[in-house]
Design a protein that fits this description.
Layout lengths: L11 H19 L6 H8 L3 H5 L5 H20 L11 H12 L2 H6 L6 H19 L12 H17 L7 H22 L10
Helix pairs in contact: 1-2, 4-7, 5-8, 5-9, 8-9
Length: 201
C-alpha cells in the first residue's frame, strides 16, 4: 500500500505571495467589491483563518498589490525620467509604451468603484505623481493638477489599447507622446506669471 506524502507546506513569504496572486486574479475577474475572504479561501483551497493570518481585509490586499505594482512600474520607467523634461515628444511616447506592458496593473486600477477602492487607487496615483514630479520642469508645480492629468491621460490611452479601442502600436505611443507634450507645454505657458521668461529691454 502506497502512502501519499502530505501536501508541502509553503513558507510564509510564498504563502503570502500566493494569496496576493489569487486576490489580484479575483479582483480583476469579479471586481474588487465582488470578492470576499471566503472567495479567496475557496480559490486557494484553504481556510479563512489562514487568509486572515496574513491579511485582515481585501483592502489590505489591494494596498499590497498596488504597492508592489508601483515598485515594478517604477523600475521600468525610472530610466526614462531624466529625459521627460527635455521637450521631445518621444519621451512620453516611450512612457506610454511601457504602460502598455502593465496589463494587470491597468486592469487592477479599474477593478472597483467603492470608497475603499477609490482611496487605495488615489494613494497609488499620489505615489506615482510624487515620483514623476521630479522629472517635470520646475514651473510645473504652479499648475496643481497638471501631473495628475498627464498620468490619467497616459493611463486612459494604455487602457483603451488594452481593450482594443486603440491600436497598441508604436504609432499610438508617438501620438500620445506628442499629445501630452503639446498639452504640457501649453499648460506650463499659461501657468507662467506675466513677464516671466521675457528678455529685458
Amino acid at each position: 500500500m502506497t502512502v501519499s506524502a502530505p501536501p508541502k507546506r509553503l513558507a510564509s513569504p510564498d504563502r503570502r505571495a500566493q494569496i496576493l496572486d489569487a486576490a489580484e486574479a479575483l479582483f480583476i475577474e469579479r471586481g474588487f467589491e465582488g470578492v470576499a475572504m471566503p472567495d479567496l479561501a475557496a480559490r486557494l483551497g484553504t481556510s479563512r483563518p489562514t487568509i486572515y493570518s496574513y491579511f485582515t481585509s481585501t483592502g489590505e490586499m489591494l494596498a499590497a498589490l498596488l504597492d508592489a505594482r508601483l515598485a515594478a512600474l517604477w523600475e521600468r520607467i525610472a530610466p526614462l525620467l531624466p529625459h521627460l523634461a527635455s521637450g521631445t515628444p518621444q519621451d512620453f511616447a516611450r512612457l506610454t509604451r511601457e504602460l502598455l506592458h502593465e496589463r494587470e496593473l491597468l486592469l487592477l486600477l479599474h477593478s472597483g468603484g467603492g470608497p475603499i477602492f477609490r482611496a487605495h487607487r488615489c494613494t497609488f496615483l499620489q505615489g506615482l505623481e510624487t515620483r514623476l514630479g521630479a522629472a517635470l520642469p520646475p514651473n510645473a508645480e504652479r499648475h496643481p493638477h497638471l501631473l495628475r492629468l498627464v498620468i490619467l491621460t497616459l493611463e486612459a490611452a494604455a487602457l483603451a489599447a488594452l481593450h482594443g479601442d486603440l491600436p497598441a502600436s508604436d504609432e499610438l505611443g508617438a501620438a500620445v507622446g506628442a499629445f501630452v507634450r503639446g498639452g504640457l507645454d501649453v499648460a506650463l505657458a499659461r501657468a507662467q506669471p506675466p513677464g516671466e521668461g521675457k528678455a529685458e529691454s
